[in-house]
Specification:
Shape of chain B: globular
Radius of gyration of chain A: 13 Å
Order of helices and strands of chain A: EEEEEEEEEEE
Number of strands of chain A: 11
Strand content of chain A: over 45%
Oligomer: heterodimer
Largest sheet of chain B: 7 strands, mixed
Amino acid sequence: TQLLEQSPQFLSIQEGENLTVYCNSSSVFSSLQWYRQEPGEGPVLLVTVVTGGEVKKLKRLTFQFGDARKDSSLHITAAQPGDTGLYLCAGYDGGAQKLVFGQGTRLTINP
Amino acid sequence: DSGVTQTPKHLITATGQRVTLRCSPRSGDLSVYWYQQSLDQGLQFLIQYYNGEERAKGNILERFSAQQFPDLHSELNLSSLELGDSALYFCASSVGSGTREQYFGPGTRLTVT
């Protein structure tokens, strides 16, 4: 069974600070997605990374896929209160044709 | 708005009862996935249907079953409910069978008392 571990589980920082969230596994994934979920709502897809070493930017968010396709990171620059939410990474298990989700990082940005 | 709809939004029922959750995928999507999200277990994949046929199975209990109809909407049936079944149930859809990117509905919050 492929597992994804996210760290930290909880993060509370002040507006304007930078932060990085990590998603790690001992298994190789054919792709990895990042989702953001707000209370009472479903996860919303932010990005998909496919190639080892790939970097994608979405405004103040930078996503990186590890060279070996076993890990990923999400870096937020100058965090804003609107970034508050649960961030989930999900790896695609091509053999089982299913997404494997990490436990999530609950991020709180204080004004 | 992802384009995936789920009903009902909230459901409160007693132990031992049976409930049905409904999902309509995005227009054009053929795959429907069901997930359970609880505080202690995170987001767990239950089952996938593609164009009416079961395609992949995850951690779905025998008390739970699902189906996808010709119009592509899907239903998740939960029976002999237990307190531990209380959770958020999400439906997601994607274009193909092995599509990596899934689009989630707003979820159904099930409370078993």
